[in-house]
Every structure is written in structure tokens, then in C-alpha cells.
Amino acid sequence: MAVKKKPTVAIVMGSKSDWPVLEYTYNTLKEFGVEATVKIMSAHRTPHEAADFAENASKNGYKVIIGAAGGAAHLSGVLAGHTTLPVIGIPVKGWALDGMDSLLSTVQMPKGVPVATVAIGKAGAINAAILAVQIMALSSAPLKRKLTAYKKNMAAEVLAADAELQAELGA
Ligand code: RP5
What is the pLDDT of residues 92-124, one digit of tens each? Predict the structure, then answer.
């Protein structure tokens, strides 16, 4: 019987409505063979649970926390305030302001409590996973090899797209 690996990344989102974006984070981590726990917790609606989770995250074996919220997106900052683990923040596009509200409330942390904030939405969701892998690859040769392969593959895709375009244009 295969033993399930203990999750090393915690994905914490403010609402179930964030899941369509956070699914990209979860799936990207899976591509790298990284197990993640996914939790719904809110800085505003369940502040005690969020604080408690972050306080115990290191003890529970997590290496990186990824927070994601939209609107007054304080979740990543609250998590960062309750842990010494690296916290990556994903601003999720909310119901107004095209995600600028989420971006600023995630990124504009006061000194001493950083949140490594990625781009709004899908690109950020994928990059949060890659950044988490990069952090963990500092002490994992297999993850480092996977990152190298990922980059090579990405470059090959761009070169193939360029070759296809050149052929289409008859250049
Ligand atoms: C935030 O408020 C959540 O992270 C979500 O992005 C946003 C809206 O939440 P719902 O009203 O859809 O639950 O806390």
C-alpha cells in the first residue's frame, strides 16, 4: 500500500469562491509531486481559526503557506503575522476594482511581516506554486531537477510556437 506523503504546503483561501483560481495552484504543485492541504479560512469570518492554523503550521510539517483572498484581502498578512514560515499571497480578483483592491491589501505589508505577493489571478496562482517549489528546492535536489526540467520545457514551447508562427508567415 502506497504511503501518502505528508503535505508540505498549505493553501489557505478566504472563500470557496476562490477555488477556481486556487485549483491552478493545487494542480501546479501536483505536477511537481508536492502534496498540499487546502483550507477555507477567512481573516474576517474565521479569524481565530486562521490564526490558530498559521501558529501551528510549522509544527504540523508545513514548509510554505500560500494565502489567497479577494477584496479586503488581509488573509495572507494575518497568516504571516502568526508564523515564521514563508507566506506567499495570491490576490484574487474580487467583485470590484479588477483585483487592485486585493493586490494592494496583500502586497502592502508593513516592515517586519513580508508576504511574497504574486500576480492577480491565474498567473499568480501558478506562480505561487512555482515559488513554493523554488523555496523547498533549496533543500531538495529532486525538486531542483524538476524545476530545471520545467524551465527547459517552457523554453521549448516558446521556441516551437515561434517556429510555427514563422512557418505560417512564410518567413
Ligand atoms: C474574500 O472575499 C474571499 O477570499 C473571496 O475572494 C471574497 C468573496 O468571498 P465570498 O463572499 O464569495 O465568500 O474574503
Answer: 999 999 999 999 999 999 999 999 999 999 999
145 and 135 together in one domain: no
Residues 158 and 133 in one domain: no
Report the separation in Å between the CA atom of 67 and the middle of ligand 1, taken as the mean of its atom positions: 13
Closest CA to 107 of 66, 73, 135: 73
Q: Which residue of 18, 41, 92, 100 sits with most ligand 1 atoms within 8 Å of its CB, as the best mutation to test the pocket? A: 18
Q: How far apart are the two ends of the chain, measured CA to CA in Å?
A: 56
CA distance 146 to 138: 12
Does the pTM surpass 0.90? The reply is: yes
Residues 63 and 95 in one domain: yes
Same domain, 82 and 164: no
Count the domains in the chain. 2
- Ligand 1 centre to CA of 23 (Å) is 16
